UniProtKB/TrEMBL annotation:
Compartment annotation: Nucleus
Organism: Hordeum vulgare subsp. vulgare (Domesticated barley)
All residue ranges annotated as the HTH myb-type domain in the record: 9-61, 62-116
Spans annotated as Disordered: 154-173, 178-238
Keywords: DNA-binding, Nucleus, Repeat, Repressor, Transcription, Transcription regulation
Name of the featured protein: Uncharacterized protein
UniProt GO molecular function: cis-regulatory region sequence-specific DNA binding
Sequence ranges of Low complexity compositional bias: 154-166
GO terms under cellular component: nucleus
InterPro entries: Homeodomain-like_sf, Myb_dom, Myb_TF_plants, SANT/Myb
UniProt entry tagged with the keyword Repeat: yes
GO BP: any one term: regulation of DNA-templated transcription
Residue ranges of domain Myb-like in the record: 9-61, 62-112
Length: 302
DNA sequence: AATACCATCAACCGCGCGCTA
DNA sequence: ATAGCGCGCGGTTGATGGTAT
């Protein structure tokens, strides 16, 4: 199907925003709230495209934005989340209060990429740049590595994984295919022959992730409904693998717009019978809640 | 002082997804 | 079932400021 332009481009301003435009946008959103970006420019008296207004608000004008440099903790968190999620900047941003996807994306491209390269890491794969050596990792060494990781997960408590889930989790960790753990900090050159205890290596940053079997089922859930939902969830993640196992990432403010989106969170999806106003209130509250994010594991299932 | 080069980041663009008529 | 719309996302671009020569 054809696609209509997002707005009338002939009569819109482009480029940097003026102070007056900012003030108009802020005043309008304060009065009427976010949303309806397409009609907002006209209503607010702005000669801007709706998308441009949205971007300006989200990336620059929102009152809850944290300005200033990224901390070392934020750096490490971004690296870890990128390792898990890839270039899903909005999801990563959901884990960093006050930071926007655009900001993180820019920061990644200008700072963190270089930082990882300096560590001898590939910023895309989070593996050592010497991938040939990594591929030749002896099976025994790999097994030892994975055992370390599983033990650490157990020691961390709360996550009782099936052996194959442990394998999957280990596979998610770049360490699983590395001759030596390369999650080195600046004072630890990559390629050290003896991997330090995984409990420190892998769990030094609490990502608040939980592992569970998909679909996430609450007591009292109708099994048929759960089954149906599992199918729907799989179809919008990675084209429905045959696997039923999933990594369920319980992320605070992961980026979902509605309760229940992406997964059956304990916070519960808003019922369609709930009045619109109540749903909106729930939606607002939900941004401060925990959500679960499901994605099928690589390479099949249990 | 002038110029070139580089780094940063705000903003734009195109596309995909979900919703609805 | 399908077309159209609105929104959000990720990649890219371009303006600007800083630094090196």
């Amino acid at each position: 199907m054809g696609r209509s332009p997002c707005c009338e481009k002939a009569h819109t301003n482009k480029g940097a925003w003026t102070k007056e435009e900012d003030q108009r946008l802020v005043a309008y959103i304060k009065a009427h709230g976010e949303g309806c970006w397409r009609s907002l420019p006209k209503a607010a008296g702005l000669l801007r495209c709706g998308k441009s207004c949205r971007l300006r608000w989200i990336n620059y004008l929102r009152p809850d934005l944290k300005r200033g440099n990224f901390t070392e903790e934020e750096d490490e968190l971004i690296i870890k989340l990128h390792e898990l999620l890839g270039n899903k900047w909005s999801l990563i941003a959901g884990r960093l209060p006050g930071r926007t996807d655009n900001e993180i994306k820019n920061y990644w491209n200008t700072h963190i990429k270089r930082k990882l390269l300096a560590r001898g890491m590939d910023p895309h794969t989070h593996r050592p740049l010497n991938a040939v050596a990594a591929a030749a990792m002896p099976q025994q060494l790999r097994a030892v590595h994975e055992r370390h990781f599983a033990a650490a997960a157990q020691a961390a408590g709360g996550h009782h994984l099936q052996p194959q889930q442990q394998d999957h989790l280990a596979a998610l960790s770049s360490c699983s295919a590395e001759p030596a753990c390369s999650h080195s900090s600046d004072d630890e050159p990559a390629g050290s022959a003896t991997p330090p205890p995984p409990s420190r290596r892998h769990l030094s940053i609490d990502l608040n992730l939980s592992i569970s079997l998909a679909p996430y089922q609450q007591p009292g859930d109708d099994p048929a409904a759960v089954k149906q939902e599992a199918a729907s969830t799989a179809s919008h993640t990675h084209n429905a693998t045959t696997s039923t196992s999933a990594v369920c990432l319980c992320l605070n403010r992961l980026g979902f717009q509605r309760p229940g989106e992406g997964c059956r969170c304990g916070a519960a999806a808003a019922s369609s019978s709930v009045p619109m106003q109540q749903q909106q209130q729930q939606q607002q509250a939900s941004t401060q809640r925990m959500f679960r994010f499901t994605a099928p594991l690589e390479g099949g299932g249990l």
